[in-house]
Amino acid sequence: MDTDRLRLYDLGATVEQAGGRALEAARPADASADVTPGGPPCRLLWCRITSGAPGDPPDERYYADEVRPVGGDGDRLQWEVVPGGLQQVVVHNVAESEAGSHLVTEDTVVRAEERLGRGSPPDLVYLAHVPVVQEAARLARIVSYESGTYTVQPVRRLTGGFENDGDPIAGVPNLGELWTEEAGYLTGPSGYDRYVRIFQTPAGWTLLLHPPRLV
Asked: Of the four, 34, 101, 109, 175, which is 20 to 30 A from 146 by CA?
């Protein structure tokens, strides 16, 4: 489904991912004539993020339902689904477009802009801007190795040791294992814990450790 992604530089410029930079260079002065999402929004609406994701692996696209406020409880607004409103519409979070991350949690209510896409006839696209904080690196303990990737347990350091910090993460590759005989070397001898740093990339968490070599 990667071809369905939009290349979003900001709310005033939306181009398709394929050939996006070439289109940007060739765009006429009246940008909204070529890329209609750069023009005024058709309308503003509130959407609540639902479960699932259009992308595989998940990226900046989310499924969402159109909602409206129905009152408050202290400092919190209460929301309800708009009768006859949009359901399971795809919302693009432009704040995550470069990293391709998927960090907005389910049930989050976001403001979205409804704009016209570039198709013929044009479809409606829905853009939100939800800043997210993405951890660049975490400390983790090696749990196991299977089929070319590791399962790791994120940890945090305390006085005198470590404790688990969240759920285990499976499918973490080590990009430093370049030769066939190096595969899985981080599992090491049994009976010892091995702590490593994992790094966040657009493709997910990754290890970057080279085995020692005498070459």
From this structure: 101
